[in-house]
Amino acid sequence: MTESYRVFVTRVLPGDGFAELRQDPAFDLDVWPVDFPPTREELLKHVGGVDGLVCLITDTIDAAVLDAAGEQLKVVSQMAVGVDNVDVAACTARGIPVGNTPGVLTETTADMAWALMLASARRVVEAAEYVKAGQWQTWTPTQMAGVDVFGSTLGIIGFGAIGQAIARRAQGFGMRVLCWNRTPRPDEAAAVGAEQRGFDEVLAEADFVCVSTALTADTTHLIDARAFELMKPGAILVNTARGPIVDEAALVHALRAGQIGGAGLDVTAVEPLPMDSPLLAMDNVVVVPHIGSASLATRSKMADMAVANLRAGLAGEPLPHAVSTAVGSK
Ligand code: DGY
Known about the structure:
Layout: E1 5-9, H1 16-23, E2 27-31, H2 40-46, E3 52-55, H3 63-69, E4 75-78, H4 88-93, E5 98-99, H5 106-121, H6 124-132, E6 153-157, H7 161-170, E7 176-180, H8 186-191, E8 194-196, H9 199-205, E9 208-211, H10 225-230, E10 236-239, H11 248-256, E11 262-265, E12 285-287, H12 296-314
Parallel strand pairs: 1-2, 1-3, 3-4, 4-5, 6-7, 6-9, 7-8, 9-10, 10-11, 11-12
Helix pairs in contact: 1-12, 2-3, 5-7
Bound molecules: (2R)-2,3-dihydroxypropanoic acid.
């Protein structure tokens, strides 16, 4: 009888791929049953002896976890496009391919950037809370007046697939779009009617600054005190990428000092955002709980991709979507 593959899945996943995996006798699945991630101790315990690991952005997969798993670990499959929680170099050094889920969440995440942009500009959350609190007494000329999105200037920091998708939507809003990417992308910019500019110029000219870059050592605190000083006084910052790209203390200072007009954040430096964060007391800040890719359809596709990467890695085949190139070396 053939041995089944032992796999630890750090949460119950949506989608058909996962449902099929659960029924497949070729896999001996250990599925973390609750929504809270396994603690460090639990993670180290559950990875022991597994052939495959399916993880989420809330799980830190570092050298200690790989060591705890053991030499038979053949694949780390993350259900997300970002893999800053995974020590990819440590995986590669051990010949373990790392999979992720690019592409399928691009449009869904761009929708969220726009939701935050519109909500922040037009004070949607603040206004809805005002109604619910029974404060809607009358109509006044300036009640809940915000700023126009239509006809304004959008600045996009990081011009990968999601940045480009954000830019495409701006055409319908008659916006001028400026973009910055570490490696210039003139063709991609031209294709969506965006203008490539220097980092400082984008910040200085944009009414809305959308952060859409991967979190790396280079992009940590890319948006810092200096960046806020460059921004227009009424500008709105939107971040759907990763919290640590923005220096949150500098953001709080910029908002308090009126250096910028507001912020729409899908991600924060620490997640969940601590309830004593000054950001939560500010009417001009909208914070949502890292739901950029959270449409049911997209999350199911992401899970299906994670399962496909797992299956390929266990079979010693190239992963359909690999972050690292340590493919099939086990
Ligand atoms: C990702 O995929 O990196 C998102 O942050 C979670 O969907």
